[in-house]
Amino acid sequence: MTENKKYCCPVAAAIDEIGGKWKPLILWALKDQTLRFSEINRELPAITQRMLTKQLRELERDDLVNRKVYAEVPPKVEYSLTAKGKSVIPILKLLCDWGEEYCKSKICLNVLE
Amino acid sequence: MTENKKYCCPVAAAIDEIGGKWKPLILWALKDQTLRFSEINRELPAITQRMLTKQLRELERDDLVNRKVYAEVPPKVEYSLTAKGKSVIPILKLLCDWGEEYCKSKICLNVLE
DNA sequence: CCGTATCCCATGAGATACTG
DNA sequence: CAGTATCTCATGGGATACGG
């Protein structure tokens, strides 16, 4: 997540950009829609505003999401996937399928987080 | 990584089992070979023994790797992928390809970690 | 509405030394 | 060889309050 790191393996480099607890879920939420800050938060009720802001800034820095600010009051900010961001969706789709098949016992639709 | 957690989304459940800094790299190292503890360590020079042990125990607990102990002196322990472990390799392959294409600037073959 | 600012805790993770 | 045992530090992450 930090800048200017170097990795000997592409897998490690990829994990750094799209890994962690929240980034895959944020990218997943944006996979086929542009969302406002509060809308992402609604899709991920367990994340705090602080973490959502932090993760979105990193995703923006790594060119995975676009951040569009409207000069309005009250403020309006929209997030969407860049081309690079869209390119990770097939990976997340596989991950989702894998999770459904192999982690069934850990999945409960009535539980947050 | 902890036991008995529940997730509302398969992606989150999957991330918990195969995410983090080291697990993808360990699984990747085992993708087409059985390796001893020290051999995995040789492929991942940046990991400490302590972390390698910890991650391998979690992978074993989640049925992603087999651990085979030989009753010899000096000790010999071999690690290999289970069927479940093998099933994540296609995901890591995609991740590797993605990293090569999109994280080129962060990859340096002469650097550890 | 979209964030910051603080404070705080749990976990990840490194370094080093030691052992059956 | 394949780990443990300590100790330490950095980061991730949560809770809450506040602000333009």
Automatic annotation (TrEMBL), chains A, B:
The HTH hxlR-type domain, residue ranges: 9-107
SUPFAM superfamilies xrefs: Winged helix' DNA-binding domain
UniProt-recorded Gene Ontology molecular function terms: DNA binding
Domain of life where this protein originates: Archaea
Keyword Repeat: no
Listed PROSITE patterns: HTH_HXLR
Keywords: DNA-binding, Transcription, Transcription regulation
Record-given protein name: Helix-turn-helix domain-containing protein
Species this protein is from: Methanobacterium veterum
Organism placement in taxonomy: Archaea, Methanobacteriati, Methanobacteriota, Methanomada group, Methanobacteria
